[in-house]
Amino acid sequence: MARAFDCDVVVVAAGVAGLTAARGLAEAGASVVLLEAAERVGGRVHTVRLAGSNLPVETGAEFVHGRPPELIALAHEAGLTLVEREGKFYSFENGRLDEAEWEDSAFEVLDQLPEEGDQPFSEFLASQKLPEKTAKRVTDYVEGFNAADARVIGTAALRKQQQAEEAIEGERIFHVLEGYDRVPLFLLDRFLAAGGRVHLETPVTEITWKRGEALVRTANAAVMELRARRVVVALPLGVLKAGTVTVSPMPQQAAEAIRKLVMGAATRVTLSFRERFWDEDAPGLSFLFAAGEVVPVWWNPAADSAVLTGWIGGPSAARGPMGESLRHAGLATLGRIFGREDLGSLLLDWNSHDWQRDPLSLGAYSYVPAGAVEASEALAEAFEDTLYFCGEHTDTTGQWGTVHAAMRSGMRVVRAIGNSPVSH
Ligand SMILES: Cc1cc2nc3c(=O)[nH]c(=O)nc-3n(C[C@H](O)[C@H](O)[C@H](O)COP(=O)(O)OP(=O)(O)OC[C@H]3O[C@@H](n4cnc5c(N)ncnc54)[C@H](O)[C@@H]3O)c2cc1C
């Protein structure tokens, strides 16, 4: 590592976390190079357009959960419109479609999570001696929302998450009307305006570092390698776990944390129809819960949209259908719920992205197993003021698996570097 530095900081990966860090550092006066494997920025925020849909369609993150101040401020700065999704909830059980309360039994149990200790959620639930039907609903809710296995996710993390959500009105949900991808695109725009440089289609393969310097190797012959004073690793947990990017030395506590945290599984399929065929049976539908169906959760993004998105989260997503078979399973589920056999002929377009098998994510989003609630804090350390990790899995505020967690983690790195004894 003898040659001069190419820049002050290399940021590895341009999801919302990496973009937030890169923008903040560049605006603070550092020379920053951002390296991204894909041909686009945004990572798990990925918006597409579908035939027949008057709104952009999300393939990854869709909702702004509650009123997280940093994301609300960014949306405001970028001139984006946040539209609250209100409407009615329906449930389909024993062949009947009825208007329902929003998973109220799940919320009641989550309010009873123990103040002390940490155990797998399924063990805690068993100790509550709830009727079988209620326990199943609660398990479905926890697994679906957290993309988690109820036998693994810990009560300490769920409690921390509950408290964090209460602080931001987490039960409210909003869409970014112009498309969620406008968030990462705005961050990129600000980063470039502050003098930052970005290389797309540049997968990082290896990071070697010691105090005060880092060498980042890539598989892009036009970039090859960069030498910097610091490196920010904003790769997803799934990629870190797979070890396809080597970090040497990997600090012991970071390795432990990466091993302990879990990358959850979630699958979504978005179906764009010729007409809102559900309006008669389920007027005003926003969410529909169909426990026991292959695709058990559905939502309609807006009262004037003929789009339905189906969701499978947790273990059933990991082993469930994908691609064409997911489209078939989704249409079959809706056909049963609404007693229709002609839905295939009403379908104009559809989309689904396999985040589990996408080598650039290797999962949907992270969750915290019992006994690992400190793991994200361990990853959030500034290692020798040179190596930093960010990304939703490094969130220390209990909001793992969200866009605002990714933002928060990027902002934490900006603060840590700003406060560090080594100047840019
Ligand atoms: C299906 C789904 C639904 C979701 N729904 C919501 C929601 O409604 N609301 C919400 O708040 N959150 C939601 N999330 C979670 C949210 O999308 C993530 O928490 C957030 O976008 C993660 O940002 P990140 O920057 O940490 O990681 P990512 O967005 O994954 O960014 C990591 C980047 O690393 C890049 N990369 C990978 N390997 C390399 C390499 N070797 N070299 C260089 N770059 C590399 C990737 O291409 C990617 O751009 C959802 C996620 C999924 C998958």
Summarize the main sheet.
8 strands, mixed
- Overall mean pLDDT stands at 95
Q: What is the level-2 CATH architecture name of the domain at 7-44 and 180-262 and 366-419? A: 3-Layer(bba) Sandwich
Can you tell me the CATH topology of the domain at 7-44 and 180-262 and 366-419? FAD/NAD(P)-binding domain
Low-confidence spans: pLDDT under 50, at least 5 residues? none
Kindly summarize this structure in a few lines.
The protein has 14 helices and 22 strands.
Structure in words:
This protein has 424 residues and is of the alpha/beta class. Among the domains are: 175 residues, FAD/NAD(P)-binding domain, CATH 3.50.50; 64 residues, no CATH class. The protein is 33% helix and 23% strand. It is built from 14 helices and 22 strands. The strands form five sheets. Strands 1, 2, 10, 11, 12, 13, 14 and 22 form an eight-stranded mixed beta sheet that branches. Strands 8-7-17-18-19-16-20 form a seven-stranded mixed beta sheet. It has a three-stranded antiparallel beta sheet with strand order 5-9-6, with helices on one face. A hairpin with a 7-residue loop joins strand 17 and strand 18. It is globular and about 70 Å long. The structure holds flavin-adenine dinucleotide (FAD). Flavin-adenine dinucleotide (FAD) binds next to helix 1, strand 5, strand 16 and helix 14.
